[in-house]
Structures are given as structure tokens and as C-alpha cells.
Design brief:
Layout: H1 10-31, H2 33-50, H3 52-55, H4 96-132, H5 134-148, H6 152-167, H7 169-174, H8 176-203, H9 207-214, H10 219-227, H11 232-255, H12 267-275, H13 284-310
Helix pairs in contact: 2-4, 2-13, 4-5, 4-8, 4-10, 4-11, 4-12, 5-8, 6-8, 8-11, 9-10, 11-12, 11-13, 12-13
Pfam family, one: OppC_N
Protein name: ABC transporter permease
Family: Belongs to the binding-protein-dependent transport system permease family.
């Protein structure tokens, strides 16, 4: 006789709620033009970033394509512009449209990479803390409290100083993307851990968990195969907000000189590179990448707010 590893009593209710949630999600998205616009903008920016090698007129990493004599050329709608450079050039003579495309790709890579690391650590620690309880819960939550006492900026300063002192500044510049993913990911994982722990505390008292224990399933299998799928809703909502926060963190760190170097453009390093030229009249070097950053973060945040409202379980009662 085969053994069913799921609870028969819980499966119909969970399946019915999931079908109702998915149908309401699609219905709400079709009726919300704001969510559609934000998703279209986000997908457009992601697509342009991924296609940067084909869409960009020049390669900002190729020094042979850069002419310092073309530096600080204005955009096409300003007098003195050059038809070769639609959005103008920066102080090094690089095409601004090209470095924005490449810079957006770097910012998105850091944002999604950092959130992936946050989710991996936070979900595992949150599951263990909520399900196992006791000393494991107390230790992990105190560890989260200690981590939350250090801001992302403080972690970046400490890690950057240690790496530069031991391995050199050139090493930090070469591996700046990986370093920022680690810094932002390690600094923000408690957000996931606390949310997952709260969801697990409610789930582990339900009948399907008791049924799985009665059938002799191990704690690891119950946590990851049965409890985790029922805690994914808040994880998805947090992830949208955390991607935007990670991109902003990267921009802030790069602006302060703790992130991406100017030779490897990101939206934050582009804003920093042009900040010194604002008063000289070359406003486009900072303001145009800044506008792209605002649109990118705003579209992610608004999409996350819509997702949070739609996936609120209270909407499906009755």
C-alpha cells in the first residue's frame, strides 16, 4: 500500500485558496492600469539592459571607442549637441546612452543577486527558527537583531576597508559586483527571516503538519516540502520591495565611493561621476541616469505595493 505524504484534509482547502488567489490576481491585474504600466516599464528596462551589447552604439569598456575630445557633449535637444550621441557624453567622452544601458544592467544584476542571497539565508533561518523553536529560535533571532543593528553602509565600510587592506584596491574594483552582492545580501537577510518565521509559527500548528508528523516524516522534509510552499506569498511581496532597496543601496554606496568604480558604470557610479559637473552646466551626466534610477525603483515599488494588496489573504475570506 502506497503512503500519501500530504494531508487529505488540507489539500482541498489549500488548492481552493490557491486557485481563488490566482484568478483574483489575474482579474486585478487586468483592471489595474497602474500595475500594467509599471510592469511594462520594468520589463522594458530589463530588456534594454539585457540587450545592451546590441542596443548600445558604443562599448563603454572599449577604450578605443572613447575620445576625450567628445567629453561633456549635451543631449540632442540642447544647442551644441552631436548627432552621434543622443543623450550626450560624460566627462570621459563616453556615450551616455550606452553607459546607461550597461549601468542599468549592472544595477539590476546587483539588485537581483543581493535579493537572491537575502532570500536564501533568510528563508532557511526563518524556517529553522519558526519550526524548531527553542534555543535555535532564540539564537537565530538574536543573530538577526545583531545584524539589524548594523546598517548596509556600515557593513560596506567595514568589508571594503578589510578587503582593500588585505587584497588591495584593484581586487575590490575587479570584483565590485560580487562584493556589493555579498554586502547588501548579508546586511538585509533578517527581513526575510523574521517574516518567514512569523508565517511558520502560524503554519506549524495546522492539521497538515500534525498529519505529516504522524506519518513519520522528518523535520527537514516537513519544513521545505510542506511548510515552505505555504509561506511563499509574503516572500514574493518582500522580494519586490527588497530588489528596489538593493538597487538604491548600490546607488548610495557607489555615490559615496564604496560601490562600483567609475570605470565599471552603474546607475549609482554614473550619478557620482557627473555630480561634480552640475555647476559647470553638464547637468545631463547626473540627472539623466538619476531619472532612470527613479523610474526603475518607482516601478518596482509600485508593483510591489500592488502585489502586496492583491495577495493579502483577507481579500479571499468568504
Amino acid at each position: 500500500m502506497s503512503t500519501n505524504t500530504s494531508s487529505p484534509a488540507a489539500t482541498p482547502a489549500v488548492g481552493r485558496w490557491q486557485r481563488l488567489r490566482d484568478s483574483y490576481l489575474a482579474y486585478s491585474f487586468k483592471r489595474d492600469w497602474g500595475a500594467q504600466l509599471c510592469l511594462a516599464i520594468l520589463l522594458g528596462l530589463i530588456s534594454m539592459a539585457l540587450l545592451a551589447p546590441w542596443l548600445a552604439p558604443t562599448d563603454p569598456y572599449d577604450l578605443a571607442q572613447i575620445d576625450i575630445l567628445d567629453s561633456e557633449l549635451p543631449p540632442f535637444w540642447v544647442d551644441g549637441s552631436d548627432a552621434r550621441y543622443t543623450l550626450g557624453t560624460d566627462a570621459q567622452g563616453r556615450d551616455l546612452w550606452s553607459i546607461i544601458l550597461y549601468g542599468t544592467r549592472v544595477s539590476l544584476l546587483i539588485g537581483f543577486g543581493a535579493v537572491l542571497l537575502q532570500a536564501l539565508l533568510g528563508v532557511v533561518f526563518g524556517l529553522m527558527a519558526g519550526y524548531l523553536g527553542g534555543r535555535v529560535d532564540a539564537f537565530l533571532m538574536r543573530l538577526a537583531d545583531i545584524q539589524l543593528s548594523f546598517s548596509t553602509l556600515m557593513v560596506a565600510i567595514v568589508v571594503g576597508a578589510v578587503v582593500k587592506a588585505t587584497l588591495g584596491g584593484a581586487f575590490y574594483s575587479d570584483y565590485a559586483v560580487l562584493m556589493l552582492i555579498l554586502i547588501i545580501g548579508l546586511a538585509e537577510w533578517p527581513q526575510y527571516a523574521r517574516t518567514v518565521r512569523a508565517s511558520v509559527l502560524g503554519e506549524k500548528r495546522k492539521e497538515y503538519v500534525d498529519a505529516a508528523k504522524t506519518m513519520g516524516l522528518g523535520s527537514r522534509r516537513i519544513m521545505f516540502r510542506h511548510v515552505l510552499p505555504n509561506t511563499l506569498t509574503p516572500i514574493f511581496v518582500i522580494s519586490t520591495v527588497q530588489v528596489a532597496n538593493a538597487i538604491i543601496s548600490e546607488a548610495a554606496l557607489s555615490f559615496l565611493g564604496l560601490g562600483m568604480p567609475e570605470t565599471h558604470p552603474s546607475l549609482g557610479s554614473l550619478i557620482k561621476a557627473g555630480f561634480d559637473y552640475l555647476q559647470s552646466g553638464s547637468w545631463w551626466i547626473t540627472l539623466i541616469p538619476g531619472a532612470v534610477l527613479v523610474v526603475l525603483v518607482l516601478s518596482i515599488n509600485l508593483l510591489g505595493d500592488w502585489l502586496r494588496d492583491v495577495m493579502n489573504p483577507r481579500l479571499y475570506k468568504g
